[in-house]
Predict the structure.
Amino acid sequence: MSVSPRALRVPPQGDEKTCLHVALQRHRAAVVWKLDGVSDTDLRRPMVPSGTNLLGLIKHLAAVEYGWFCETFGRPTEPLPDVDADPEADMRATAEETTAGILAFYQRACAAADEVIAAVGLEETGSSWDGETVSMRWVLVHMVEETARHAGHADIVRELIDHGTGDHNFG
């Protein structure tokens, strides 16, 4: 996620896997960029009735990166929030969790996911959290959708905090 957003352009003539992976990386970078310059208090502040906040979005995305890429394809993960006990546990930062810790969790999850993406072919299948057989292609498409959806949420939350808009700082 330290890649410049300018470098994250989906190649116009790229192969399918590369295009999907770069699209995912671009949305990952946009979500992280939304946190730049925001105080820790505002990162944790619920801005909509559901309680969504910027830090919770990052924590959730880390958990789903590990879940969809690593767990689906039989790779190890670090301990994930217990959503069985609390379905929203991955959407909230606890008082004990730091901003740096959640960002590092997301970076580790994305790095682990990238390793799986590199190792698994588009047609290869794994078993999702609900037991459904899914291909790497499906998981990549799903995660581009999931990350883009939450990047949109981050856009709205950030605008409510300080009127910041845009998907990347190209300045």
Q: What stands out?
A: The radius of gyration is 16 Å. The mean pLDDT is 92. The longest strand covers residues 125-127.
